[in-house]
Design brief:
The protein is an alpha+beta fold and about 450 residues long. It contains 11 helices and 17 strands.
Length: about 450
Amino acid sequence: WAMLLVHGAMCIALALTMSLALDGYQAGSETDPHYFEGRLLLRVHDVTTLISVALVMIKSVVGSWSTAILWASGRYMLFRSAHPESPTAVSFMLRRKLPPWLRLSGGKSQMPKDVFGWASSLAILSALVQTSTGPLLTGSVEWNPTTSISNTSVAIRSVDPATTPDDWRLYNSEGGLNDKRGHLRLAAGHANLAWAETSLMDAKGNSNVGNGCRHIVHYNGLPRGSVVEDMILPCINIRGIQWYHSADQIAPEDWADVESKDLSLVGDDPFSYSFPGVSAVYEWPRLRSALPTDTVPLAHLFSGTKTVALLAGRHDLTNQTDSPCKNVGSTIFGNLDALPYHLQSRRVGGTEECFLIGKLNFTAGMTRSRRARFIAPRVIEDLTPVQEVRFEASPWVPEALWLLPDVMTMISIMNTSQIPTFNNIDGYVDSLTRQAFLGAWDMLSHSFDEGETRATY
């Protein structure tokens, strides 16, 4: 009876804990600290472990109780009952942990013949039921994702508080070449800051903590793991790259743009830098033209394809009659001769540069993230799966896309984020385009948007 009382007390304690303490408990995620605002914060797996430990303890008590019942019942049935059971029946009960009358003998079962037989059968069956309650209790705990505002929440600023309406006019006016160069460097700096931590990228250069839509928050260094709600940030979803397999697929304007300065907003030809890895995303004839200087552009969302060019390798020519882009040798991307794509040749003096040309399919805009997280003191990343992101139009999308050739060139030459290159052409161009667009959008929003704050915790 002592074990029965202990078992009952443990079951009641577990039931009260689950109904009073666990119901409505806000557990932390896998990345949340165990101590938050001076109190212990259990994660989901912590709660599951504690319930499992309690169930194991209850199961041990039930096991001891059922063993005592079985041996006491067996002793009574063999030696003290007015209607003794056969040793075979008692052995069946001890082995199967079932009442002996459930054993078929001669094609039928023998029902209990006295009160003790019925009592022992009821006790054995109740112990059997108790051993099966563990999965039911564990499965009854359901978790729903939610957020709550911290007592220590603060407001953050995402744009420059010193921005004036005249800044856009100066950036966009005739003769504003120096201004654009300064902003170009700021965009590259934003991209490098957002992707400088290589432990937050996988082997292909993609983010391993969120959907890759990162945003720089200015002047607010908050702890890693802080969460931002209702945050406006840039986002890009690159669906794939189709490289051309033959020269016939390359449109004349695609290659003409590579050999001109029209791609640059600062008159700096991206492909005048003979560094393998330099890449540009552009669309002819939709190159940048003069824009109104008194107001910011209309909001725009891009979804479609643009031309992408990549300087994949270069080598010294030993013979000017050699086949174009053959036997290039080892490059940062591996063996180019093994690629099934067409390599477009451009000869500069005694060297040959080999380009990949293709089409990049993507969607670019901004999104209002319901839940974003600080992955570094000034870097926020959206946690929404990229397939579920709701893209919205933004005034800075066209300008950010026009800036891609310039920003991609700077990032590729510096490569502060150390985007993997070897046997990773698609992943490299994907990451380079993403970093450049997000950095350019951040620069534009920071420089020309009106002030905006968001709550964090």
